Each structure stands twice: as C-alpha cells, then as structure tokens.
C-alpha cells in the first residue's frame, strides 16, 4: 500500500458486498462483482482446486442462503494506487468458516474481483 493512501470506499464496499453475497447465496451480485477472468482457488490438505467465474456462480446458485445476520469479518484491506487492492477476510458458509484472500482490480470505474484464494479455517459445528 502507498504510505498514507486511504482505502477507497468503493473497495471496502466491494468487500462488504462480497461477504453478504457469499453468506446469502446471491449469485446475481457476483455476476457484476466478478471480473470476466475471475479465478477461484481452494487450498486444502496440500491440494489446490480451481474454478472460473461460471463454475463459481453455479456453486453459489446451488445452495440456500443462511439466516441473518451474515457472519463475516474483514481482517485487512490493502490498496496499491488506484489500480488494485487485496482484502483478507473470514466468512461463514455453515458448517464451515473460510479464510479468503481476495484480489481486486479497478477497471471501468469499478472494483472487480479477479482472484479468490481460500481455505477452511473452522468447522462451526465442532466449535471455533
């Protein structure tokens, strides 16, 4: 991050929209939020699994939303100039809690989610 650069409110808003859309299974949000070249990677037990935008939207459409309020925590947001940003967060998709590292790019006046690298950090039914 540039020394004293403030975080763009649009990047923070994109991160919040992401968290709400994950928790409430809102594929329509991801249609606009995700860049056309979006790539998602699960890192688990030394293995990696990859999905593109279409596959991710299918996964989101395939599940029901969870009851309010949404359960997530934004741990950090870093921004490099006005072109790219990184968001580190946790979000619940019961019975799991995921840790996500999101890469955003600023294109055509909007923050677009380009990359998601994530892992499971807790099984909520077993305690945190």
Features:
Nuclear Transport Factor 2, Chain: A; 3 helices; single chain; alpha+beta; 128 residues
Question: Helices and strands in order, then pairings?
Answer:
Elements: H1 9-23, H2 27-33, E1 34-44, E2 47-52, H3 53-61, E3 72-80, E4 84-93, E5 96-107, E6 110-123
How would you sum up this structure, described in words?
The protein is α+β, with helices and mostly antiparallel strands and 128 residues long. The protein has one domain (9-126): Nuclear Transport Factor 2, Chain: A (Roll). Helices cover 24% and strands 48% of the residues. The protein has three helices and six strands. The protein has helices spanning 9-23, 27-33, 53-61; strands at 34-44, 47-52, 72-80, 84-93, 96-107, 110-123. A six-stranded mixed β-sheet has the order 2-1-6-5-4-3. Helix 1 (9-23) packs antiparallel against helix 2 and helix 2 (27-33) packs antiparallel against helix 3 (53-61). The protein is globular and about 40 Å long. The model has no long low-confidence stretch (mean pLDDT 93).
What is the average per-residue confidence, as pLDDT, rounded to a whole number?
Answer: 93
Uncertain residue segments: none
What is the CATH third-level topology name?
Nuclear Transport Factor 2, Chain: A
> SSE order in H/E notation?
HHEEHEEEE
Count of DSSP helices?
3
Rg of Cα set: 14 Å
Main sheet strand line-up: 2-1-6-5-4-3
Question: Could you give the distance between the termini?
Answer: 31 Å
| Total count of strands | 6
**Name of the CATH class:** Alpha Beta
CATH architecture label: Roll
**What count of domains describes the coordinates?**
1
- The assigned structural class equals alpha+beta
Largest sheet: 6 strands, mixed
Beta-strand residue percentage = over 45%
């Amino acid at each position: 991050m540039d020394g004293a650069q403030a975080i763009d409110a649009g990047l923070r808003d994109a991160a919040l929209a992401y968290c709400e859309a994950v928790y409430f299974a809102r594929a329509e949000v991801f249609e606009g939020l995700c860049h056309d070249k979006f790539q998602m990677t699960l890192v688990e037990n030394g293995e990696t699994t990859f999905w593109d935008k279409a596959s991710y939207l299918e996964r989101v459409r395939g599940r029901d939303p969870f009851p309010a309020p949404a359960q997530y925590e934004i741990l950090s947001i870093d921004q490099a100039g006005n072109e790219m940003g990184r968001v580190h967060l946790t979000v619940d998709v019961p019975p799991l809690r995921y840790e996500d590292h999101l890469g955003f790019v600023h294109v055509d006046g909007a923050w677009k989610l380009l990359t998601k690298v994530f892992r499971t950090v807790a099984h909520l039914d077993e305690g945190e």
